[in-house]
Design a protein that fits this description.
This protein is α+β, with helices and mostly antiparallel strands. It has one helix spanning about 5-20, and strands spanning about 25-35, 35-45, 50-55. The relative contact order is 0.22.
């Protein structure tokens, strides 16, 4: 795992807990390169269980 990926996942966990506590809609977008592919993790706190990885 890259440092960026780990930081993204920790940020997602933090913001997910904050969104749940505050009952807010939040959006997190982490972008970085893994094996020459740009990967974006999108988090919508309305659906706390969903993580979508978009390969471009």
């Amino acid at each position: 795992m890259s440092y960026e990926l780990i930081a993204c996942l920790y940020s997602w966990k933090f913001w997910r807990s904050q969104c749940s506590f505050l009952k807010l809609n939040c959006y997190i977008d982490c972008r970085y390169l893994i094996q020459w592919r740009a990967i974006a993790f999108d988090v919508d706190c309305e659906y706390l269980q969903d993580i979508t990885a978009v390969f471009k």
